[in-house]
Amino acid sequence: QVQPVESGGGLVQAGGSLTLSCSVSGGTFVGDDMVAWYRQAPGKEREVIATITWDDGSRHYTDSVRGRFTINRNYHENRTFLRMNGLSVENTAVYYCSVKGGSVVYWGQGTQVTVSS
Description:
This protein is mainly β. Helix content is 0%, strand content 56%. The protein has no helices and eleven strands. The protein is globular.
């Protein structure tokens, strides 16, 4: 069973940075797998914020994070990263990694990011 595993969340002051990581237990990223980072703030729906395709590295961002967040992949470590700069209190949320391989989507358990003012 493929299981994405997130790490790197925590408490950070407004204006600070964090880097989240997503690896896969029970498997590896392959070919045209698409890795997506979502977040869900308290009382809000889960929203996609960044995606990357494993093989060609094509990236997409939602408007609210473009220019501040960067998604990358590391073949050697077989993991993806989400670098988040310029964090604000509004970015407080649980951040989830999902991996889409073919028609199947696998979800991680999420990692909490809390931004203090």
